[in-house]
Design a protein that fits this description.
- The protein is α/β, with parallel strands linked by helices.
- It has 2 domains: about 5-65 and about 220-280, no CATH class; about 75-195, Trna Endonuclease, Chain: A, domain 1.
- The protein is about 55% helix and about 15% strand.
- The protein is built from 12 helices and 7 strands.
- Strands 1-4-5-6-7 form a 5-stranded mixed sheet, with helices on both faces. It has a two-stranded antiparallel sheet with strand order 2-3.
- The longest helix is centred in the N-terminal third of the chain and has 31 residues, at about 45-75.
- The protein is elongated, with a radius of gyration of 24 Å.
- The termini are far apart.
- Pfam families: RE_TdeIII (PF09520).
- Its EC number is 3.1.21.4.
- It catalyses: Endonucleolytic cleavage of DNA to give specific double-stranded fragments with terminal 5'-phosphates.
- This is type II site-specific deoxyribonuclease.
- It is an enzyme of class 3 (hydrolase).
């Protein structure tokens, strides 16, 4: 994959547009006290920047799932539906699920996470979710060799490595089922046995990420003026009637929100007029 294609796909995934700001404003309306508390010392701009960076990290994780699926296609692995049926009421989603050979004898399941840095309550839930998927696949593909992998992309975080090793060690195995734990490049070293270009593909992925990150480092994130910028007014117009009405309300927290975030600026007056025209009889 050319870097420009990689970059365009990632730009599209994490772009900050009016819909990003609409969702941000929706979040403010749902929990305005987090912004308006007298016991918050950080300025609103810091909170907005935190929201942008947190959102980008989440979207980056989603992007990695999608782009790695595409790279597996390039390796001639056969991606299959990531949705598997546990029972008539429950469907489970796999991060990666594919056959690695043309005779479809070896099925690979990958539980993919960016970092191994979750607390103990989350890792137990992650393991339970992973093992449920393995059990579903064992029943659905009883004659196949199943390799189920937990893969963390960032090798600098290995907080729960001992936990996962112990869980894999104590797992009740059946014939043709194999569980593995990999960090970063280890996954592609394993896949190299199926396609010798796998390690090259990993290097390409990593180099593209580093190049993209270096380009971002030279750019400043610009926080718009919520009181005046047209992009924010466009975002406000995407709110539904109930949400706009709440924004224009007179509760203590909402009054603080309008003053703190929107500086009681012209966008509030513009959305007030928009509400009158479109929603008031």
């Amino acid at each position: 994959m050319e870097y420009k294609d990689f970059k365009n796909k990632l730009d599209k995934k994490i772009k900050i547009d009016e819909f990003f700001w609409t969702n941000f404003i929706k979040g403010l309306l749902k929990d305005s006290k987090r912004i308006c508390s007298d016991y918050r010392v950080s300025p609103i701009e810091v909170k907005i920047l935190q929201n942008i960076t947190q959102s980008n990290e989440i979207k980056f994780g989603d992007f990695l799932e999608d782009i790695i699926t595409e790279y597996f296609n390039e390796l001639n692995f056969e991606n299959i539906s990531k949705h598997i049926i546990e029972n008539e009421n429950v469907s489970l989603k796999c991060d990666q699920l594919f056959f690695v050979n043309s005779d479809k004898n070896d099925l690979i399941l990958i539980e993919q996470k960016v970092r191994d840095d979750h607390d103990s309550s989350k890792i137990r839930g992650q393991w339970d979710n992973f093992s449920r998927k393995v059990e579903v696949l064992k029943k659905e593909y009883p004659s196949k060799k199943i390799v189920a992998i937990i893969w963390f992309i960032d090798p600098l975080f290995r907080s729960n490595k001992k936990f996962y090793i112990e869980k894999i060690k104590n797992y009740t195995f059946s014939e043709n089922v194999y569980l593995k734990l990999f960090y970063e490049k280890e996954l592609f070293a394993f896949l190299n046995d199926y396609n010798e270009k796998s390690l090259e593909i990993f290097d390409e992925i990593k180099n593209n990420i580093i190049k993209y990150k270096n380009e971002l480092d030279s750019k400043n994130i610009i926080v718009p003026d919520f009181g005046k910028d047209e992009e924010i007014f466009s975002a406000l117009k995407n709110l539904d009637k109930k949400e706009i009405k709440k924004l224009l309300g007179n509760s203590e927290n909402i009054l603080k929100l309008r003053k703190t975030v929107f500086n009681d600026g012209e966008n509030i007056e513009k959305i007030r007029e928009f509400y009158k025209i479109n929603f008031e009889e």
